[in-house]
Queue: 2 jobs
Job 1
Amino acid sequence: MQFNQLELANPYWLWMLPLPIIIYWLIPAYRTRQSAIKVPFFDVLVKALDEYPSEGASQLQASYWQKAFLIMSWCLLIFALTKPTILGEPQTRESLGRDVMVVVDLSGSMAEQDFVSKGSSSEGSIQKISRLEATKEVLADFVKTRKGDRLGLILFGDAAFVQTPFTADQRVWLELLNQTDVAMAGQSTHLGDAIGLAIKVFEQSSKEETSSEVDTKDSNVKPREKVAIVLTDGNDTGSYVEPIDAAKVAAAKNVRIHMIAMGDPRTVGEQALDMNVINRVAEASGGKAFQAINRDELEQAYEAIGELEPQLYESTTYRPKQSIHQYPMMLIVMMYLFAFGFATIKRHVKSGEKHV
């Protein structure tokens, strides 16, 4: 039962409201007949006491204010038993589904202009763009489908570094992605180190989550799923940690890695794609491996990842509740304190007048 901003948790107590009236009708006051004592000086006694006889039982009669106090007390008691609760303003609680770390290769080969721009086919002309620019365009569409996920960004070349820690702000994430440029992390491809850094960031995020749950005493929060999407266009060159070893650690830490191999597989040298390593990394961590030699295949790879990692976003609306049942009980106590205090003062005044 709800009345605007007020809710009664136990409304069935309202059925008790007419109980005093029912008792008054069904169980009247006790009456009895007894033989009267004959007093010869009865008239004198009546005048001295200032009390006049009446037929029937002699009953004390409550004054109007006493009756009002009794009625109000009963109503307040029943109201308190219903446990009235005030509803606060609606609050929205958002539950983020998973953490997605996007790992992007910024080695020199990402400057190769062998991909087609998004608007080229519609305009009738073919505009070649670099692999990095194609990646930015595809990722801009990909993040729109990740509502509820926290996104992070790691860039790697000669070394790996965190460009964006986990955030739910997609606009900020895209801005930081667009600020990246080829070779800003070096010319080579340290794939294993990049995967290792991603695992470290996931671990730090889990520790922060755990400490936050302890502070808020909220043990019902489920841990977020951990997903890494690694895009590279070359072979690992000189990582401190081998990609396969990093993938095994990721599997132990419940981190799934989806690998996207970008570029021409016929390339030789350091820029050559080692599909064997890429497939083994994805398989060892429970992820999938994809190969994209053009923009369409790159989009299809991210779409497939989106299907493999569906949204886990949940949004629930609730209204905080505050019980006010103690206030009617406090009011009853105050009323009776006032009534007893008033009756005591009145009795003292009358006794003082008699003595005078």
Note: The domain at 92-316 is CATH 3.40.50.410 (Rossmann fold).
Job 2
Amino acid sequence: MLSILIPVYNFDIRKLVKQLHKQGILLPIPFEIICSDDGSDEEFIQLNKEIEIFNHVSYELQKENLGRSKIRNHLASRANYEFLLFMDCDSMTTDENYLKNYVLLLDQSKLLYGGRTYQDFAPQDSEYYLHWFYGKNREVSSAEKRSKAPYKSFMTNNFLIPSAIFNQIKFDEELTQYGHEDSLFGLELKKLKIDILHIDNPLEHIGIEKSEIFIKKTEQALQNLYFLNQKHQLQEIKILKYYLFIQQYHLSFIVSIIFRLIKKPMIKNLYSQKVNLWYFDFYKLWYLQSRKNNSDKNKHLN
């Protein structure tokens, strides 16, 4: 009854799959783990092939990179069971009853979202600090808090959905790069009045990236957000609210002036272990504005 679906890209998933398999064989229901590799480097392919020794586990290779949305839709089409558990490959379970916690709450009318967590201690290397600090302060949230804004708090890293509901929505395959596919998916859930039950059953995000990569991925996410807003009107997203306010009142020049004044201390701060997330928020606001202005839209911090 449970299909565990993991899109894979350049990450060693052996430990995660071993954890899930150990928990799965103790469940009172049938389960399967389907991992689909979306164009990883050969070194990761060779490592991850080792998971094929486990029963109920399959590992397939895509001939070409499908992208974050299409690969998830593909995984859903391969599933044999009626409940789909999607998770990111750069994750680890933090509870030996992780799968059981979901199975006890299976409901054909609801989506279950378990949340996300990060390691408690900061990385020693300052190059990884921004991603960890942002995640701890912006992405980690209790089920009680998330439930106050159930659709805004939804992320795609760790959720269980009945296949009948998923097939009504699916991921927008026009989105091929990183970012905000969860925002659009949450919007569609809201439109269809599908309930989201938030629970405290997190996966730990272990794929912490260097600040330069994290900032570039943030830029990709903002590009997606800009594109999505043209079609779907995602004003509920806070950064977009500020951006639209600035556009409405023609305040872009003020943002540009402030950016030029604070650029040097902002860069220094974001690459340090004393991160001030106000700087990062302002950078995102400036980047959205520059996305609109053709002369600046491809700039990024370096």
Note: The chain has two domains: 2-115+155-205, 211-292.
